[in-house]
Amino acid sequence: MSGSVYGNIFRISTWGESHGKGIGVVVDGCPAGLTLNEEIIQDYLDRRKPGQTKYATPRKESDSVEILSGVFEQKTTGAPISMVVMNTNQQSADYSEIAGYYRPGHADYTFDQKYGFRDYRGGGRSSGRETIGRVAAGAVAVSILKQLGVDVCAYTRSIGSVSIEYKNCDRKNILLSPMAMPDLKASLKAEHYLDQKMQEQDSAGGVIECIITGLPAGIGEPVFEKLDANLAKAVLSMGAIKGIEFGSGFLAAEMSGGEHNDNFRYDNDGNVTKLTNHAGGILGGMSDGSEIIFRAAVKPTPSISKTQRTINKTGENIDINVKGRHDPIIVPRAVVVVEAMTALTLVDMLFMSMTSRMDNLVHFFHK
Amino acid sequence: MSGSVYGNIFRISTWGESHGKGIGVVVDGCPAGLTLNEEIIQDYLDRRKPGQTKYATPRKESDSVEILSGVFEQKTTGAPISMVVMNTNQQSADYSEIAGYYRPGHADYTFDQKYGFRDYRGGGRSSGRETIGRVAAGAVAVSILKQLGVDVCAYTRSIGSVSIEYKNCDRKNILLSPMAMPDLKASLKAEHYLDQKMQEQDSAGGVIECIITGLPAGIGEPVFEKLDANLAKAVLSMGAIKGIEFGSGFLAAEMSGGEHNDNFRYDNDGNVTKLTNHAGGILGGMSDGSEIIFRAAVKPTPSISKTQRTINKTGENIDINVKGRHDPIIVPRAVVVVEAMTALTLVDMLFMSMTSRMDNLVHFFHK
Amino acid sequence: MSGSVYGNIFRISTWGESHGKGIGVVVDGCPAGLTLNEEIIQDYLDRRKPGQTKYATPRKESDSVEILSGVFEQKTTGAPISMVVMNTNQQSADYSEIAGYYRPGHADYTFDQKYGFRDYRGGGRSSGRETIGRVAAGAVAVSILKQLGVDVCAYTRSIGSVSIEYKNCDRKNILLSPMAMPDLKASLKAEHYLDQKMQEQDSAGGVIECIITGLPAGIGEPVFEKLDANLAKAVLSMGAIKGIEFGSGFLAAEMSGGEHNDNFRYDNDGNVTKLTNHAGGILGGMSDGSEIIFRAAVKPTPSISKTQRTINKTGENIDINVKGRHDPIIVPRAVVVVEAMTALTLVDMLFMSMTSRMDNLVHFFHK
Amino acid sequence: MSGSVYGNIFRISTWGESHGKGIGVVVDGCPAGLTLNEEIIQDYLDRRKPGQTKYATPRKESDSVEILSGVFEQKTTGAPISMVVMNTNQQSADYSEIAGYYRPGHADYTFDQKYGFRDYRGGGRSSGRETIGRVAAGAVAVSILKQLGVDVCAYTRSIGSVSIEYKNCDRKNILLSPMAMPDLKASLKAEHYLDQKMQEQDSAGGVIECIITGLPAGIGEPVFEKLDANLAKAVLSMGAIKGIEFGSGFLAAEMSGGEHNDNFRYDNDGNVTKLTNHAGGILGGMSDGSEIIFRAAVKPTPSISKTQRTINKTGENIDINVKGRHDPIIVPRAVVVVEAMTALTLVDMLFMSMTSRMDNLVHFFHK
C-alpha cells in the first residue's frame, strides 16, 4: 500500500515523480453529466504553476494537462477520468549529487529506510510536483461543488511573522498577490520579509486559512468520519503541513465553555444563526450550516542553499549546500492544493451523507 | 455510512449510546496468539472511568468490560474480538428537557439536521461514553504494540492557562495527577484554576501532548496515507478536539528553513541521530526513527450550568441552564483516548508497511 | 484482517463462535428513520433456527436476538445497530476429541495452518452459527429494501438428484416445506432422498436459487463493482458454497449468441421488455430492470458419521467417525442466508448508485 | 463510485474507453525492488492482443504499453506504477449507428439507464479493450507471485460443445492453440465448430479453467474475505462471465458427503496430502496447500451479424444487423484476463494474510 489512493466514494489515484515521464491522476466516481474540459482543469492547475514570480522556482514548465478518458463531448460519462501532465523540463543531472546523502528536512532518509533505495531525482514522489495530480482532480471536485452551491476559498494568512486578520474571501486580491494574501499591503510586507530570507540563503513558512461556504448542515459522520477529522487528514497529507486547527483552534484550549460555546439564535427570517463561530462551523463532526474555517501551518521550505550538517550513505558526517532551483516559500503555491484537498474531501463527504435518512432514500428511488 | 468503523487492516467497529443498553466494539484483524483477557482491557478502560475525582462527573459506573468472542484460553484466535460494557447507571429522565432545544457547543442541532431527529438521551452517540469502545479496542492495540517494542504516552500539557514544559513521559506522575499532568506542581495549579471555573459555573479546555517511542523508521505511506495525516484524523475524530500539531507545529510557520531543518549526524556508535526534532519525528509522512510528538487542542466542556442563549425546536429564542452531571473538564479523561486512537492508528500503519519491500516479502513467505 | 467486515457504505461487522458466549453483528450505515425492533429481526432469524425438523441438528437453541444500540422508540437513529444472540446450549465436551485431528471437508486444517492453532469447539468461526450475524443484519437490509420496493426470494432448487423447475417465488410453500422447496411433491421426494442418506450415515448437498424483483435498471457499477461480481462474492463468502451462476449460467457457454442474446421489445404500454432472460437480469454488470436470477451450489454437509480417513496432529494417519449433532443437509437452512447476503449486497449497491448522475445530485441537495 | 478500483492493499485503478485516447491503469501498493520493464508487461499483454487469428477481430492494434512512473532503473520504487496503451486504430464512424438503439446482449441499455447517456463508441467502458488495464496490472502481479513461488495458469476448457478433460497446465500447447486449448486435437475440433458459427453469422461461448499452484496453506480470510469469494468477484467482474465453480463445483450439489469430502493422508515424507481434491484446494475459504481449481462460464459474444430484434431510443421496435469487426468468440482472449484477475487477487490476499499471527509479526519487525 503506497497510499496514493484518496477518497471512498469519490476516489482519486495519483501517480508520477518530479523527474519521471509525467504526473497524473485517475478520478473514479465522478457523476455523469458534469461539464468538463481541459480548459477548466488547466485554469485551476495554473494557480500552482512554478515560474510565475521570483519567489517560486524559476523552472519553466508548461504543466499542460490532457484528459485521456471519462469525458465525451465535454461531459463526464461516469467512467474514470484520467488526466496527465507530461514532464518537459527535467534536468536529472541537477540531482545526481543528492543520491548519496540525506537532505535535512526532506524525506530522503525515510524513503531509503522504507523502500531500501529511492528515486533520488528531485524528490521523486515527495516532490511538490506530486500535487499536480491532486490539483487536477481537485478541479473536478470544485466543478461538482459549484453545481451543489458549495465554495472553497483558501489564502495565505501569514508568512513568517507577517500576518493578516481574517477577512472574507477576496478572490480578486488573492490572485493578484504573489503571496496569495488578500490584504495587498501585508502581501508587500511579506515580499520584503521573503527578500530578506532569500538574501540569507534561507526560506520561510506560513499559515494558510481556508473557508467553506454553502455547505448544508449535517455533512460529516458523527464518529470516526467526522468532517473535521477528514479535512485534517486531507490537509496533513500534503507535504510540509505541520498542523491544523478549526475555528478558534488552539486558542479554544484557553477559553472557558461560556466563552467558546456559540449561542444559537433565530434571525428575523426564522433562520438559525450562531452569535459567534468559535467552533469553525462544525459541531460533533458535522457541519452546522455556518462558515467552516480552518488554518494549516506550513513549514519553511527545507531546500536552502545555506550550509547544513548531515550524513551520507557511506557513514560519514558531512556539510552540504543544496544546489538547484528551489522555492524560498511554498505557501502561496500550496494555497490551491489546500483548496483542492478540501474540495475532494467535501465531495466524498457529501456523497457519504446521502444515505443518512430513510425518507430521502425513498424519495430518491421512487422519484 | 455512519462512520463508526475505523482502520483498514486492523479495523474496529464501535457502537452504543450513553443511555442505551451498553457500549461496545468489535476488533477485526487482531493477529492470533496475542495474550488477552478482561483484566488487560479493564485496566486500560479504568483510566477513562468517571467518578474518580471531583473534576469528573460524579456518576458511579462500574464500566465493567466483557469479552464475548475472539479469545480462547487467554489467547486471541484471529477471530473478531467483541467487547461490551453494559450501561448500568442511566437516568434518562435527566435528559428529557433537552429534547426540545439545542445546547450550544453540542451536536444536538447537527444531529437533528442530519438525521431528522435524535436520541436525545445524554448525547446519544456523541456522548463521551462513545469513547469506551475506542479505549477497549485501544487496549488491544497497545498490547500488540508492546510486543513490537512501540510505546505511546499521552498526558495533559496544559489546562486553560496552566501549562507545563515538555518532559519525558513520566507515567507514574501522569497516573498520580488528577489532571494527568506529570508535573505535579502544575497539576495543583490546574486544580485551582478548575476550582475557579466550577465556581463560575463554567468549564475549561486544554492541550494533550502525545509521544511515540520505539517506532521503526519508514512507517507511514508517502502520499495520502502519511503517518501524520492518519494520526490527525484519528485524534480529530474524537469529540471536542479542535486542532493538532506535530513537532514545532504552528511555530514552524514562523521559523526559517535553517532553523527548522533537523540536521542529521551519526553518533559515536554509528547510529543515525538528529540534532533537533522540530519535525516531530516524521519526514515526508514517514517516521524517521526518532521520537514522534504531537499536541491536540481540547475545547472547554460545552455543558455548563451558566445561563446560555439558544433556540428551541418550536421556533423560539430561549435562555437555558443545562442541568445534569457534567465534567468541568474532559482533558484528563481524554488523555487515554488520545493514546488509544494513536495506538489503533499505529497498528494499522505498521501492518500497511509490511508490503513495502519485495525482499521482505520473499523472506516472509519463504521462511 | 480477519475479514469479518462486509460492505462499503452499508457495512456490517460480525463476530462470535459457535461455542463462545454469543454471536452478533454491528450494522454501520443504516439510514435513520427505519422502523425496527427485535420482532422483525427474530422473525427473519427463525428461518435459520435449528431443531425444527428431523433434517436439522436436534440442538435446541432459542437463538433469541437482542438489539443493544441504534434504535430509539422503534426507529433506527443512524447510529450503529448492535445485535446479539447469546449462546445458551453449548456442550464443548462434544468437541474435545476433534481438537487433535483434522475433519475432512472442514476448515480444521486450514485454520491451524493460518493461525497456528484453533478454537476447536464446534468449528469456531467456521461454524454455521456464524451466519446468525449475517441473517440478523440481513433482516435490516430486507427492511430497507422493502421500503424501496425491492424483493429478494430464495428457495431450494435441488437436493442431491431431486430438482424442481424454476417457478415464481411461492413464499407460502417455501416456508411450508422442510426442504424450502416450493414444489411440495418434489419436497417430499427430497425428504425420502435424505432419509436414505441418513440411513447411510451420509449427507447431501443441493442448489439454491434466488430471484430479485423490483430492482431499478442501472444498479451495479460497470467495471470491478459489477452487480453479479458482488453477488458472487456475497454468496461464495458463505461456507459450503462451491459455485454460482447467473441466468443461463454454465449453459450459456454452450449456446450461440443468437440463442443467448435477449432481444428487446416495447410492450403495448411502451415499457421496455426482453423476450427472454438468459442474462438473468444483468447486462454489463448492471441490472436491466427485469428479474435477476442466480443459483448457488451447496456441497454436502462435511460432518458425517461414516468412517473417514484423516490425519492427526501427532503425525499419524487415522480413521475417524465424527460424533455430535449435525445436519444431514444444510441447504434448507442456508436459503435464508443466501437471501440475507443478497439483501446486504443490494442495499450497498443501491447506495453506491446514488452518485452516478449529476442531475440527481443537484436535485438531491437542492431539494 | 464507478468501481474502477480493485484490491485493498495491492490496488489498481483502471481507465479508458475503446475509442478514447487510450487505456491505462495505475498500480498502487507494488513493493519496491521488483524487476519491471515494458517488455515484461508487453509480453503478457500480447496474449490478449486482437488480430492474431481469424477467430479474433481483424483490427490491427499495436497495443504498445508505456510505463510512466513507479519504475527507476528497471526496479519498482514503491510508488504507483502508471501504465498506458494509447489507442491507435479507432474508427468511431463504425459505431455512430448504434448510438440510437440498444444491442441485445450488450450493456447499451443499462449504461443509458444508469448514466442518462453513453459514450457509444465501441462499447465505451464495457468494451473488451477495458481489460488492457487489468492485464497490464496483472503482469505486475504475476511478477510478484513468481518471486513468491506461486503460479497461475488458465486455459480454454470448452468452446460450445467441444470440451477437454482437465489436464495439468501445458503452457506450450496453450500458447500454440489459437483456442488456448492445451489438447491440440480438441483445439482443431473447436476451430471447426467456430467456423460453422461464423458461417451462420453467429458466435460461441465456452468455459475457462484456472489452476493455481504453489500457494501456501492458510491464504484467504475465514468469513467474508474467503479466497474463493474474492476469486469469484474477480472473475465475475469481467464482462461476459456468467458463472464460476470451484473444484467439483455444481456437481458437488449431487454428491454425498462421503463422496465429496477429501480425506487427508500423510505421504511417505510426512507431508500432508489429500486423496482427492473435490474442494478445489480451498477449505473454509482458505487455501489448503493443494492445487486450486476453478472454472468460469463465458457467454457467446453478443455482437453477431445475424438479424436481431431490439428497440431504439425513439420508442420503436426495430430489426438490426450489427456491423463492425467482432470476435466470434472471446474465450481464448479472455484466458489471460482470468489469469490476470486471479493474480491480482492472490497478491492482495497474500498481503492480507501477513498479519494473521503474532509470532510472525514479532519476527518481521524485530528482524
UniProtKB/TrEMBL annotation, chains A, B, C, D:
Biochemical pathway: Metabolic intermediate biosynthesis; chorismate biosynthesis; chorismate from D-erythrose 4-phosphate and phosphoenolpyruvate: step 7/7
Record-linked InterPro entries: Chorismate_synth (IPR000453), Chorismate_synth_AroC_sf (IPR035904), Chorismate_synthase_CS (IPR020541)
List of residues binding FMN: R125, S126, S127, G284, K299, P300, T301, P302, S303, R325
Protein name as catalogued: Chorismate synthase
Binding site for NADP(+): R48, K54
EC number: 4.2.3.5
SUPFAM superfamilies xref list: Chorismate synthase, AroC (SSF103263)
Pfam families to which the protein is assigned, alphabetical: Chorismate_synt (PF01264)
Species in which this protein is naturally found: Anaerocolumna cellulosilytica
NCBIfam families recorded: aroC (TIGR00033), PRK05382.1 (NF003793)
Gene name of this polypeptide: aroC
Keyword Lyase: yes
